[in-house]
Amino acid sequence: MAADGTVVPFGDAAHLGALPALSASGSLVSMAPTTDGGYWLTGADGEVFAEGDAGYAGSMGGRPLNQPIVGIAPASAD
C-alpha cells in the first residue's frame, strides 16, 4: 500500500480495491488484513476504508485528533 492509496498485491493476495479513484482526503498510513482476505486502510486523518470482507465500523475522519493516526490493527468483535 502506498500513501496515495495504491494497493499492489503479492503472491496469492487478491486486489480488492484502491483509493486513488476515491479521492482519499489525506495520506494513507497503514493497512490491516482480515482472516478471510479483506483489508482495512487508514489515513493519518483517521479515515478508515474497508475492502473485501472487512467490515466497516466507522472512522474518525473529519473529527479533531490530538495526533495523526500512525497505524491500524484488527481486533476481534467478541
Short description:
The chain is an all-beta fold and 78 residues long. It has strands at residues 28-33, 39-43, 48-51.
What does this entry look like structurally?
There is one protein chain. The protein has one domain (1-78). 0% of the residues lie in helices and 19% in strands. The chain contains no helices and three strands. The protein has strands at residues 28-33, 39-43, 48-51. Strands 1-2-3 form a three-stranded antiparallel beta sheet, with no helix packed on it. The chain starts with 27 loop residues before the first strand and ends in a 27-residue tail after the last strand.
Main sheet: strand order: 1-2-3
- How many separate helices? 0
Structurally, how many domains make up the residues? Answer: 1
Low-confidence spans: none
**Mean pLDDT across every amino acid position:** 81
Secondary structure category: mainly beta
SS elements, strand count: 3
Write the layout of secondary structure elements.
Layout: E1 28-33, E2 39-43, E3 48-51
Antiparallel strand pairs: 1-2, 2-3
What key phrases describe this protein's structure?
3-stranded antiparallel sheet, mainly beta, 3 strands, 78 residues
